[in-house]
Model the fold of this input.
Amino acid sequence: MVEITEGCVLSRLPASTRLILQGRQPALQAACGALGVETVPEMLCTAEGAGGHALRVGPFELALQPTGDGLAPLEAALASVPHSLVEVSNRNVSYTLQGWQAADILAALCPLDFSLAAFPVGMATRSILDKAGALIWRTADQTFHIEVWRSFAPYVEGQLHEVAKSISYNILTVQH
Amino acid sequence: MSKTFRLSGYGRVDRSRPVTFLFDGKPVKGYAGDTVASALLADGRHLMGRSFKYHRPRGPVSAGSDEPNALIGVGEGARHTPNLRATQVEVHEGLVAISQNRLPSLRFDVGIVNTLASPFLPAGFYYKTFMWPHGFWDKVYEPLIRRASGLGKAPTAPDPDEYGLHYAHCDVLVAGAGPAGLAAALAAGKTGVRVILCDENPEFGGALLSDSHSLIDGVAAAQWVARTVAELEKLPNVQLLTRCSAFNYGPHNMVALNQRLTDHLASAPVGMPRERIWQVRAKEVVLAAGSLERPLVFEGNDRPGILLASAARTYLQRYGVLCGRKAVVMTADDAAYRVAIEMAEAGLKIVAVADLRANPDSAVVAEARARGIKVLPSTTIQRAHGHYRVGAVELAPVSADGAVGKGRTVSCDLVLMSGGFTPSLHLHCQARGALTYDDKLGVYLPGDSVEHVRSAGSCRGVYALDAVLRDGAEAGLNAAGGEGDLPVWTVTRQDQPGEGGFAGALPRRGPGHLALAFVDFQNDVTAKDVKLAVREGFQSIEHVKRYTTTGMATDQGKSSNVNALAIVSKTLQRAPQKVGLTTYRPPYTPVTFGAFASHARGDQFDPLRLAPADGWARAHGAVFEDVGLWRRARYFPRAGEDMLAAVTRECRMVRKTAGIFDASTLGKIEVVGPDAAEFMNRFYINGWTKLGVGKCRYGLVCRDNGFVYDDGVVGRVAKDRFHVTTTTGGAAGVLNMMEDYLQTEWADLDVWLTSITEEWGVIALQGPKAREILAPLVDGLDISAEAMPHMFLKEGTIGGIPMRLFRVSFTGELGYEINVPSGRMREVWDRVWAAGQPHGLTPYGTESMHVLRAEKGYLIVGQETDGTATPGDVGCGWAISKIKPDFIGKKALALPALNAPDRLQMVGVLTDDPHYVLEEGMQLVAAPQMQAPASADGHITSSYFSPALNRSIAIAMVKGGRSRMGATLYAPRLDAAAVRVTLVDPVFYDPEGARVNG
Done:
């Protein structure tokens, strides 16, 4: 946990299970069911069930973050449905960026609109953090969950620090 | 007479805060709020620079960002910034500014000889004069010209400042905060939508800050500005940016702003960025860029002391500075009369207002006459006299037919010129906006644009203040969606703008072949240069621009474009709208490189991707190389070894015992789904249906043109699951191409792709001892030759860590690629390393990897192939499935041209001299001495010293090469006789493949 600037804390999260589930609607539905999520979230939305989180990052794709039992219940639920379930726990490195300036800092590296109206809590999308790909998920008004590929982690951390250095001067606020 | 030109009771500078700065090493006094130009003018100094080509003495012609003359260098050492406009540089205590393009000093400059030589330096002179002798251009003429011309010097030390770049989003972006911009921002802001208002100046208000005449709602214009800005500041949905120029209008309403944060401060807070770029994505944009007064083109119009009338008004009303004592006003427009009246009131003597028009008769003209100002209709300036400062002008009568008679010379120290106003179309043009020519105003106005943009106020030819405010408010409200109250203001006093104005060169007596009447001050382009270009056959305005360089300086033709256009139009006797207008290019005003680089600097310029064993390699003294964004270990030198020695040792150890190599950067894609095999069949040239689970196959991908795109080993993990590898550089491209076909051509297939490049770290363990080293580590997995032959794959664990073990080889030796979760690869690496020590396990890098594969004749896509090689060309015709109904590239591969016998084919090459290593890229020709131009038979693609063969080897692409084994060719050299080579089979080592199957 590092306070990269006043009003923004960057924390690297411990390794945990990450899965990419791809398939048509029945597969997405079955996977959500296994996590205890009732309906498949809309595009770029997320849902939480007893078994973990499902992030709808593509029309045929969910990024899954199972808790507890992990893979087994998912595989059971998906057994008879065409699908692709691939573990990416090691590919992705996860962070949270938290604080009243978190959105401003992301706005230096990502061209998306991070106002609460345009990027509400619960929204998740693949985008970029300057020259690195990233998954960005708003988990609270001032908290973002970020995942990047492992080899890009030092670069992304460096960029977040670099941007944070001068963030507090005459900045436009992205949130209203 | 007082030495100072500063007037009390005028101006917005803060008289309670005097400031001292240095100009050319001498202290100059000014006040907070001054620019370098206004402070120097307050001292009576107009001379501020030397011109680009002729080294003419120059002073400011404007008071803003359109300034072409008064370009200065600011700051010292690494913080020096050249070519800043003195009319915009705000003074602060300790500011250091210098004049430019002069040697040795501003007042005495040897470069002035260029003016004497001006008859010999016409437009395009460097195309004409410096063609002989051949070869002198590079070494003599160009360096000389470059030294003699140009402006400031760029600093050479790294920039110590911080810069920022941010994205921002809004509903309405308003560029320019003059009357139209303020009205637009307020109208939009009051509806509650997100608004950003930016202006390049330190304070909002634009021309209103210099307007002491107009009254809005009964108050002075500047007071109205203060009131409106205060109102805007109260709106939380409105963001206000001063010192912030909208300099680039990109596609889809992405507008770039350059905000300058520290340059105006004597000492900036630590960590404050010097500048910041805002990339603003705006739903709607209101351009309120205003208009620029046009200079008049007459002989000597560049003498210091000759400036735009509106600029003199700004120096008076904003800075409290009178630009001279005795002025001639030369105008073709009513606006200059108001300036004359105000200047006269402030104590300046107006010798006369010379008006090009025959009957100037508006209210403001009458007012000037009533105040005793002499008005001379039908009068032009034949010539201005003076060197460092204008001293006199000849005022000459213009008859009805345009002929100019003999005039009289009057003395003056100031000439105020006004050719009317040119709407600023730069951003509108950048937004791919069309232009329409307005006959009445004689200027271009903004037409339709593909972007969500609208112009308001004088940048679209609306000049009267009441109309400008209304236009701005309407534009702002409409941009915000049209729902809401339209703010209304009453302008209770204003000048009605006339429809005067003049473009082109003023009429003169005589042809003026030697007259220097400047059109483009910054690039030193004169009226006769433009006329000459037309005479020499350049009729398109774009050609005239490039030939004469008019409008090509950093001011982007702000003051010159319309005058140049009118001269071309008149010379060609063709209407201006038939001549066209040149393109305005970004940036509107220059932007520092630092701002563009922003946080992409130093080791943060690009991501540096580190492989999982990078730390280990560093600890073991590896020399690295960049492969795309990856840093890879190239070789591991021991004490005293150079690359050749290290690589030779590494290669020998791999062939003798075993080597270990971090292959994690290889691209990896997991292809999963019931239709996975079908997808693979369509995508690769190979057949996949019969590949059993647990087996691997070398796969080749072609584009639809039949040319090799990528390759890699593919393992079948399950019936519906393939573990695909790609080249390191091809990883993203192959995944994109797969997705492309899946989404557009084969959406019916139930198969999905996931990048697993970074999920799996890969340890290549290669060499005769590989199995012996690995066997004890793999938790009981049987990896014997019988249980796991070459090109087999097994899943298991290694020390409890999940593993996909491939028996594959890119060295030609018995070998494995151990795939383990990337986050745990280092643990596994350390264990394999320890287990290999008794056997002499050696780390090797990419260089040895290249040599080892070349000894075996394995191709590298991108090295042997160049985007025009078919699988057959590189000896992989065997991989093409003969029974598949289709695959990407199948149709193309059937074309006769792709099967011609004389295509470049991959072969081995041996030199007669076994110690001579050919250079990659060398051409191969039929005879040792060929007459140029000779066509080559082929070229070398890979070349190394082979430790296994103890001689040099090379791979080449040669016409019909496979049928020419044993043939002799020659590799010409620049500095020695051609090298004789023999074509051989490209598999140099172990052609039977006994070792790889061991």
About this structure: Chain B is about 20% helix and 30% strand. Chain B has a mean pLDDT of 94. Residues 666-756+875-889 of chain B form a domain with the Alpha-Beta Plaits fold (CATH 3.30.70.1400).
